[in-house]
Every structure is written in structure tokens, then in C-alpha cells.
Amino acid sequence: IRTFKTTHPNSLIFGAVSDIHVLNNDATYEAKSKAAIKHAAFALEMVGAMAECDFIANLGDNCWENGIDTDNALIGARYSMNALKPAFDRLVRFVLVGNHDTSESTQKMYDLIGTYNEFDDYGRTQIRGYGYKDYTDKKVRVICLNTCDYWNVKGGCGMSYEQKDFLLRALDLSAKSDCAEWQILLL
To answer: What HEC string does 149-185 produce?
Structure first.
């Protein structure tokens, strides 16, 4: 096993997964998706350890809520979060909200996802799924956004004004004496 080393002092190494989509309304698909999630979670845990990652990120769509009830959507999301727990427990983690991580009980979904985030500064609340973390030694700020914290009347999602205000504040590094040396990574 060989570890990955970077030569640039401001580089971050991270692992990411996205679009897990556990579906709990079809037995065949559910079994296959749960098996795939187990393998992906194991791979993320191994990559995180071998590559000496600074963090891991789950970029959203932890379940598939379209056409299924809230309780089953939450069961799927809980399964995803529990499968990723071994990788999450070893590293700093960010869990973002995807457009399928909504349900009739959006607050419950945010509660579930938000408990995993390790931000230095949160948006409106921790559970809304956006915030940032500074890696001072590498001079990098990682900003995580929730592109579905607002639903419009046409059924589309986007960013609330509160989150846009948060983003403007998060992009402002002028309070740092060495702000010209800092980089920003958006997730």
C-alpha cells in the first residue's frame, strides 16, 4: 500500500461520493443499492486512510425521495449515513444536501445530514447543510453549499437569500493578514 503525497504546501487531499440514492420502494433495487453503498463506503474509508485525506465529502442525493413517502426516504438516508459512518468517523467530513434529499419532512432530512458536518462556521443553522472550514496550515477555505435549501413555486430548487448572504461572507478573507495567499474550494 502506497500513500499519496503532494508537494504543494497548500494542497488538500479529499475523497468524495455523490448520488448514493437508496430507494426503499422496490426490493430488488433496494438490495442492489444497499450492496453498492457498502462497497462505496468501504472504498471511501480505504482511500481516506491510504491517501491521508484531509476530509471526505458526500456531495448529496443520499436518498431518492421522488414518489416515495417521507418515512421511507428517511430510512434510505439513514442507511446511507450509517454505511458511511466508518469513513466519517476517521476524518473531517462534509455531507451536502442534494435535490433528492428533500421530502415532505425536509427538516428531518436536514437534521440527519447536518449532524455529520464539521464546519468552523455555519450558515443560518447547522442543520441547513452549508458552512465552511478553514485549513489554516494549508491556507484553504472549503465552502460547502446547499443548492436545494429553497424551493420555488415551479418545483425547482436553489439557494435562499440567507445562504447567498452567507456565501458572500464566507468568500471574504480580508480579515486574514495573509489573505492573498489563501485559496477557496467550493463544494
So the answer is: CEECCCCCEECCHHHHHHHHHHHCCCCCCCHHHCEEE
185: nearest Cα among 155, 149, 134, 142: 142
Q: Shortest CA distance to 23 belongs to which of 12, 33, 15, 14?
A: 33
- How many Cα atoms are found within 13 Å in the side-chain-facing hemisphere of 166? 23
Query: pTM of the prediction?
Result: 0.81
Give me 147's grid cell: 443548492
pLDDT in tens, 171-182: 999 999 999 999
Crossing angle for the helix pair 27-50 and 70-90, to the nearest 10 degrees = 20
**What digits encode the pLDDT tens for the residues 131-160?**
999 999 999 999 998 877 776 667 677 788
Measured distance CA(129)–CA(151) in Å, rounded: 15
In one letter, which amino acid is 174?
S
